[in-house]
Amino acid sequence: MAEEEDDIILSELNDEELSLQMHDDLYDGLKEEIEEGVNILLERGWEPYRVLTEALVSGMTIVGNDFRDGILFVPEVLLAANAMKGGMAILKPLLAETGAPRMGKMVIGTVKGDIHDIGKNLVSMMMEGAGFEVVDLGINNAVDAYLEAAAAEGADIIGMSALLTTTMPYMKVVIDSLVEKGMREDYIVLVGGAPLNEEFGKAIGADAYCRDAAVAVETAKEYMLRKHNQLAAG
Amino acid sequence: MSNALSDLLAKRDWLLADGATGTTLFNMGLQSGDAPELWNVEHRDRITALYKGAVDAGSDIFLTNTFGGTAARLKLHDAQDRVRELNRLGAEIGRELADKQDHTVIVAGSMGPTGEIMAPLGPLTHELAVEMFHEQAVGLKEGGADVLWVETISAPEEYMAAAEAAKLADMPWCGTMSFDTAGRTMMGMTSTAMAEMVAKLDHKPLAFGANCGVGSSDLMRTVLGFTDATPPAPVIAKGNAGIPKYVEGHIHYDGTPELMATYACMARDAGATIIGGCCGTTPEHLSAMRAALETRAPGPRPDAAMIEKELGGFSSASDGTGDAPKPERKTRRRRG
Question: Where is the B12-binding domain (chain A) (predicted)?
């Protein structure tokens, strides 16, 4: 890297240059630079929602795509998500005040017996990065934890993750309970985890299997759109 | 220093390891979400049956039911204070069975990942990881394990912590990583990078390699990566029997015994010395693998086209090794 590139002064960039630079800084996981960029854009009079979508969400989309394509791996994505979190901490209260559009709400956790929460954390962060509200139930969740949280939070989506062959069947236990209680149609159910595949997702009655965090975000958006369309039609 | 596994490795061209633990225990009635390690106390007979399945099918090495036996994992079942006991018992049941055989069978003390992300990205420090693995290793040693068997690791830092724990426990060890993300481990390590890491370790494993991941084709590609240059230790190949499907309330892996037999011979042709299965691999698969290894003549070193033809396609175009064009992001400009 040439030395002059070390000396980028964010406040001297125009709006377009700055948001592109923020995409790069997100990619490189530079939290302080992201916080600085968010503050500069806000000072310049950008709506919080515009900062979120144009500077942060589009930046995380690049990260998500490269993760999906095997260019970035978990360590880099964790750093990017951490930088995103820095920006979100500034924007969150402002978004609430300004009544920005709501993308949707997801309740997520690893299933009973599974403490492997790396994938689940990535999905949480990428979903937040895409503007969704996420309620993270953590690890080792029994049926009731999912059902109660989904109802109490008024969630649109239930996300379940399992990394072990020994815990993946538990996803079906949760879905079966939703069906039994007549709640299945109230939620979009997304499942993920290393040993799973699309066919498995279908077989246990989930709406979709998401092979990684980037796909989870795309799938969630698509299903939310369908849900809105159905509501509009109904 | 010689031990049962190094003696066996010196005598034989290949060794058959075992198959699945988790999927097999499910078929014996383990409930999803429960800790398999508790069965070392509650259902000794079933754990004996699990081990016996592999031994009777011809496995030279079998892994103990202690994969989730670190304090980090047992905490989930409020059994974090029982690490020594559960690991000791898991190994003891194996020792008892191995000693009854008329030939050498290796009891390998399974040690799976802690499930936590290591510092600085996550909360798990090197010291704590070493401490947890060491505690488990001591239990396995007390129970009579011949060797420690670290498996399904994603992070190089965790692999190195396990190596240090093995040294502290004064135990020989083997260690495999899981290459399940575009041909690399979840944390981005390639097969060749793992071989380089192993070469530099102070307490070297008796054998290193890959387990689990995505089907047998991907695993074979990883083995080729290990053996592309002279590997720093004998290579282990322990692949899943296909991919998981949900059939009538059970998880079923779709790889047939015949497919796993082909895979076993290809792994040998690719330079692997210790060959076995992982998820979905039953004693029936192991018998077919043993028979094939004993009767089929060694073939040429397989290449990607051959693997694809015999075992099926890969999950990604490249595995990040060699001269294959690496996908890269076009950056505008980067900070230094």
Answer: 103-234
